Amino acid sequence: MNKRELAKVYVKMSPKNISIVQAVKEIEEFLETLKESIALDNEVGFPKRGVFEILTRQPRVVANPVTRERMTVYPKKTVKFRASKKIK
């Protein structure tokens, strides 16, 4: 599902009569707020829904399959959503 499809669902479920453009703007504002709060606290929880958290992937050494040259994949941070037991 992309942002446009999510906006269409949001318009259908919204009690107010809003346009798809307005819905996309509201979704983008929410996502920006979520990004900022994850960056500050490393974790954002929604009761009875789940938790967004930052995971740090460890560095590792991999080999290029064609040349067999060894390369280092540097550590990076990723965001993971862990659903609550009620959603599962």
TrEMBL record:
Coiled-coil positions: none
- InterPro entries, per database record: Hist_DNA-bd (IPR000119), IHF-like_DNA-bd_dom_sf (IPR010992)
What are the recorded GO MF terms, alphabetically?
A: DNA binding; structural constituent of chromatin
The superkingdom of the source organism is Bacteria
Protein family: Belongs to the bacterial histone-like protein family.
State what protein this is by name. Answer: Integration host factor subunit alpha
- Could you tell me which species this protein originates from? Fusobacterium ulcerans
